[in-house]
Specification:
Oligomer: single chain
Bound molecules: zinc ion
Structural class: alpha+beta
Strand order of the largest sheet: 2-1-3
Number of domains: 1
Strand content: 15-25%
Shape: elongated
Number of helices: 2
Length: 60
């Protein structure tokens, strides 16, 4: 399952849960001097649907 989280500044990242947590923690520290906990990240992230979009057959 992929997750995505967007910072208040507009920066965003997506990936595996552990990657997203580590990614925005590093961003928040580097860009905003904020220390985020994993729970902070879990409170704001959203699930990204995996797989290609489903096209209806018969057209095109
Ligand atoms: Zn930011």
């Amino acid at each position: 399952m992929l997750m995505e989280v967007t910072c208040r500044c507009g920066w965003s990242t997506r990936g595996l849960e552990s990657e997203v947590i580590a990614g925005i923690q590093a961003h928040a520290k580097a860009e905003h001097d904020i220390k985020l906990s994993a729970d902070d990240v879990r409170a704001v992230w959203r699930v990204v649907a995996e797989g290609p979009p489903i096209d209806e057959p018969g057209s095109g």
